Amino acid sequence: MTLKAILFDFNGVIINDEPIHQELISEILITENLNFDQTELNNLSVGRSDHACLTDLFNIGGRAVTEEYLTKLIAAKATAYRKKIQQLPTLPIYPDIPEFLTQLQSKKLIIALVTGALRQQAELVLQQAHLTQYFSVIVTADDITTSKPEPDGYLLAVTQLNQQHPQLNLQSHECLVIEDSLAGIEAAKRAQMPVVGIANTYPLHILQRHADWTVDYLSEIELERIQKVL
User: Fold this and answer.
1) Of the candidates 87, 103, 135, which is a domain's last residue?
2) What is the domain range of residue 81?
3) What is the pLDDT of residue 151?
4) CA–CA dist 152, 108 (Å, integer)
5) pTM
């Protein structure tokens, strides 16, 4: 089998912005008089869309909310995220990202992004970091109605890549996913895709129980070795 495409997660893989999202979710919980400890919050938020996260938080907190209200909260959080990102002196892009993307491009591998973030958030960061040109397809929370660990985002990416590059005849097992969260790793597995877990959010020993390969840094990913195993 030939490795044809690399599918990246966004938050926690491209940009180290999980602390920003945690802060903004915590602010919403305070405003809504909901109380969760950090472990609970991490389990419900990391690797998942805002809609899925907030829906579960309200349900567990015994609060019934309408879709309209959730939409307003998500929009307010998105505005706050944009302000925080624009105020940062330097974007917290993981340092080996540009070099790794260039390496993939030189190997003629197709690159896509699959994220639970909103499109406006992903595109803002990619544009500011001058990374947009690397990604043939970007699948965001705006494109699907589910959240990781559901595989829909990764499956949609394959469909869209085949639409752009019909000569590839891309299959799920010919994609390599790079994820930092347990929800994301499960989503890739359920999409029948091999996955590398990068220890940006969870410790390496935790990821080793779930991912096919684990690394501390992108530069440690041995594409030739993975290709041989596949």
Assistant:
1) 87
2) 18-87
3) 98
4) 25
5) 0.92
